[in-house]
Write a structure and sequence with these properties.
Layout lengths: L1 H19 L8 H7 L1 E3 L7 E4 L2 E3 L5 E4 L2 E4 L2 E2 L7 H5 L15 H10 L10 H4 L2 H9 L9 H22 L3 E5 L2 E6 L1 H17 L3 H10 L7 H9 L4 H27 L2
Parallel strand pairs: 2-7
Antiparallel strand pairs: 1-4, 2-3, 4-5, 5-6, 7-8
Helix pairs in contact: 1-10, 8-11, 9-10
């Protein structure tokens, strides 16, 4: 019976992986060349998940080109699109977007009347032609200026914010299909008490979301839970991380009590 359940859960995970696999918007190679990167020092605080996969510490938060990475794994879409940097260059002429068909325009006008459908990620909305043109834009001849420096400062500020969130002990969920979910330390500790076992026991993302919602974690929405189920094999690592954090908290409490008792 146990073996059948394991096989069933594995099948569910494969189906979810096939249906829900997403990736972040690729950073164009010219942006990598022109803007290079900024690396933070490694640290072990907090917990980060990327598209449902647990990322093992130590963490090094990095800006490569126009996006943020953790341990060389992309964590965001482009914070500022490369085309915005190109627009700061003297003599830049914006590419002309292909004309939309009348049918497509009418469909957009109708869809604009409703706001109950989640917006598509930028990586899906960008046309293949526009993406190709943007990626092909040469880095050679790119010259930094006050405007491009301001854009780069904005991306570096996003890197520092992610680094600070983790160092403060937050659990940070980043996904290509949804906005980030940041769980502050007190709630993060309560979530960590139940998360790995809930991932292990749930048959799919809907069941995991329902379980967590019943425990009060209403921010753990379906798409995020689908990603966690896709990476259910990570749950033993989450248990180990929980053990380490509990030991660190216990030692810190003992140290504080010792200092207080010596006064």
């Amino acid at each position: 019976m146990g073996k059948m359940r394991t096989l069933f859960l594995a099948l569910i995970a494969l189906i979810v992986a096939a249906q829900g696999a997403q990736s972040f918007e690729k950073v164009p190679d010219p942006a990598m060349t022109a803007l290079k990167g900024t690396r933070g020092k490694p640290f072990t605080a907090g917990i980060v998940f990327c598209n449902g996969a647990y990322v093992k510490p130590p963490y090094r938060i990095i800006r490569y080109g126009t996006a943020i990475f953790v341990n060389d794994q992309q964590l965001t879409d482009q914070i500022v699109p490369w085309k915005s940097f190109l627009a700061t260059q003297d003599g830049y002429v914006a590419p002309v977007a292909p004309a939309k068909t009348a049918t497509a325009a009418a469909k957009k006008n109708v869809d604009d009347l409703f706001d109950d459908e989640p917006a598509k990620p930028a990586s899906e909305e960008k046309s293949a032609a526009a993406a190709s043109e943007e990626a092909a834009a040469p880095a050679a001849g790119f010259s930094s200026n006050a405007k491009s420096d301001a854009l780069l400062k904005k991306i570096n500020a996003a890197r520092l914010e992610i680094q600070r969130k983790l160092k403060d002990g937050n659990i940070c969920f980043y996904g290509a299909r949804y906005g980030r979910v940041i769980v502050e330390p007190r709630i993060a500790s309560a979530l960590l008490d139940v998360l790995p076992e809930s991932i292990s026991d749930a048959v799919d993302g809907a069941a995991l979301a329902a379980t967590l919602r019943a425990k009060g974690f209403v921010f753990m929405h379906r798409e995020l839970c689908d990603d966690l189920i896709e990476h259910r094999r990570d749950y033993p690592q989450i248990i180990e991380r929980r053990r380490v954090l509990r030991e660190e908290a216990s030692l810190q409490k003992m140290f504080q009590n010792a200092r207080g008792g010596g006064r």
